[in-house]
Amino acid sequence: MHSWITFLPTGLDRLRIRWHGHSCFEIDGSVRVVTDPHDGKSLGIPPPKVKADVVLISHDHFDHNCARIVQGPDSTVVSKSVMTVERGVRIEGIEAAHDTDGGAKRGKMTLFKFELDGIKFCHLGDLGHKLDEESVDKIAPIDFLFIPVGDTFTIGPEVAKEIVNIVRPKVAIPMHYRVPGLGLALQPVQNFLKRFDQANVIKVGNEVDFAPDELPQSGTEIWVFSA
């Protein structure tokens, strides 16, 4: 089994997740982590308005790599498959591919597993294939899984559902799907959501704050963010 050391919360009661569109999320606790920032204009949606302590870049495509827009003077940017601790955030980069041909079509990318205040997250970037057993072993167990569902440039709803079933996070958060104004031909999130028991699908708005003991104790909830 893959080893993973847990850092317990240091007096923090709640964390917050905010969606900035596409695959860009802000996870706010003792420090602020931002994933796959975009510039907004290139996609046809608003840009993220946040300054990060730690920025995670899954791959060097225009809709995922705009670190400058969220960087502050002391920000740390991680964009490679490494194991590191930055600003108290334990980070592991896991190599994957942007397609089903080992990266031959769209290149390699990095899945980021990271731990903030005792909560384990994994952001799958623009994953383009099913996860192998080794990758699943590195990711699981996990509290939050950010997973692309829009097809075309990533996995689609069916494969995304399979990955959720295998990884079994407490919460799965769909991303990289069609929204109003987006200039990419992706599937809508409903094509993913309809594959789950609707009692487990929770619409949380643009942001949600939570305490660790409020997370599901069994099964997986699907948290759906809106712009």
Structure in words:
It is built from three helices and 14 strands. By secondary structure, it is mainly beta. It has a single domain, classed as 4-Layer Sandwich (Metallo-beta-lactamase, Chain A). The strands form two sheets. The protein has an eight-stranded mixed sheet with strand order 6-7-8-9-10-11-14-12, covered by helices on one side. Strands 5-4-3-2-1-13 form a six-stranded mixed sheet, with no helix packed on it. Strand 9 (119-123), helix 1 (133-139) and strand 10 form a beta-alpha-beta unit.
The helix-and-strand class reads mainly beta
Mean pLDDT: 89
Care to count the β-strands?
A: 14
The CATH superfamily is identified as: Ribonuclease Z/Hydroxyacylglutathione hydrolase-like
Compute the gyration radius: what is it? 16 Å
Sketch the major β-sheet.
Answer: 8 strands, mixed
CATH class: Alpha Beta
Overall shape: globular
Share of helical residues: under 10%
CATH architecture: 4-Layer Sandwich
Uncertain residue ranges: 1-11
Continuous helix count? 3
Order of helices and strands: EEEEEEEEEHEHEHEEE
The overall number of domains is 1
Strand order of the largest sheet: 6-7-8-9-10-11-14-12
User: What name does CATH use for the topology?
Assistant: Metallo-beta-lactamase, Chain A
How far apart are the termini? 38 Å
